[in-house]
C-alpha cells in the first residue's frame, strides 16, 4: 500500500446547475474514496481553449489518498461518467461539459505518461485553476517549477479572469 498523499484537483462545470454539479462531484469523490474533501470557493470564468456561451464555474479541492495516480484517474473518470459526462464526439480538444475533474497534484509526484501527466501540464496557463489553488494552498510549492502559487500566477499568460462566485 502506498503512503497517503495530498491530492489536489480542479473541478469545472458549464452545463446545467453548475454549482450543484461541483457539489455533487465532491460528494461522489468523498463516497468513492471514503475521505473528506476540502474545497476552495467557486470561481466563474469564460471558457478556455474553445468558444462557449456558457461560462464555467470552477474550484479546487484537496483530499488525502494512498491510491496510485492511475487508480485516482480511474476513480475520477467514474465520477464524471456517473454524472453524465459524455465522450467528446466532436474530437475537438475542449467542449462544454457537466463536470470536468483534473488531477493537478498527487503529493510531490512528477509523472509523464500518455494518459496522465502530474503536475497537470496546463495548470500554469489557467487562472481559473491557479486562483482557487492560491485560496486553498497559499504556501504550496509546485514540485516541477519549484515556485509558490503566487509566482505561478505572476507568470500566467491567461487573459481570462476567474471571478469569485461564491464562498
Features:
25% strand, 4 helices, alpha+beta, 167 residues, Alpha-Beta Plaits
Protein model, in words:
The chain is 28% helix and 25% strand. The protein has 167 residues and is an alpha+beta fold. The protein has one domain: Alpha-Beta Plaits (2-Layer Sandwich). The protein contains 4 helices and 8 strands, in the order βαβββαβββααβ. A hairpin with a 2-residue loop joins strand 6 (111-113) and strand 7.
**Which stretches are low in confidence, meaning pLDDT under 50 for 5 or more residues running?**
none
Beta fraction of the residues?
A: 25-35%
CATH architecture grouping:
2-Layer Sandwich
Q: What's the CATH class, please?
A: Alpha Beta
Q: What is the CATH topology assignment?
A: Alpha-Beta Plaits
- How many distinct domains? 1
Q: How would you describe the shape?
A: globular
Could you tell me the mean pLDDT? 91
The major sheet is characterized as:
6 strands, antiparallel
State the end-to-end distance.
36 Å
* Tally of individual helices: 4
Helical fraction equals 25-40%
Helix/strand order, N-terminal first: EHEEEHEEEHHE
The value of Rg in angstroms is: 15 Å
Quick one: CATH superfamily?
7,8-Dihydro-6-hydroxymethylpterin-pyrophosphokinase HPPK
Q: Please provide the count of β strands.
A: 8
Structural class, please?
alpha+beta
Amino acid at each position: 500500500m502506498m503512503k497517503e498523499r495530498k491530492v489536489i484537483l480542479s473541478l469545472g462545470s458549464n452545463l446545467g446547475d453548475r454549482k450543484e454539479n461541483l457539489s455533487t462531484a465532491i460528494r461522489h469523490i468523498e463516497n468513492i474514496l471514503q475521505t473528506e474533501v476540502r474545497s476552495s470557493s467557486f470561481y466563474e470564468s469564460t471558457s478556455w481553449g474553445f468558444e462557449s456561451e456558457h461560462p464555467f464555474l470552477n474550484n479546487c479541492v484537496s483530499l488525502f489518498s494512498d491510491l496510485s495516480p492511475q487508480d485516482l484517474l480511474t476513480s475520477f473518470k467514474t465520477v464524471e461518467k456517473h454524472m453524465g459526462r459524455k465522450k467528446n464526439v466532436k474530437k475537438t480538444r475542449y467542449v462544454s461539459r457537466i463536470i470536468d475533474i483534473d488531477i493537478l497534484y498527487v503529493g510531490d509526484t512528477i509523472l509523464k505518461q500518455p494518459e496522465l501527466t502530474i503536475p497537470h501540464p496546463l495548470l500554469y496557463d489557467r487562472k481559473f485553476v491557479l486562483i482557487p489553488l492560491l485560496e486553498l494552498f497559499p504556501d504550496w510549492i509546485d514540485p516541477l517549477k519549484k515556485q509558490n502559487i503566487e509566482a505561478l500566477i505572476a507568470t500566467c499568460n491567461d487573459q481570462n479572469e476567474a471571478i469569485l462566485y461564491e464562498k
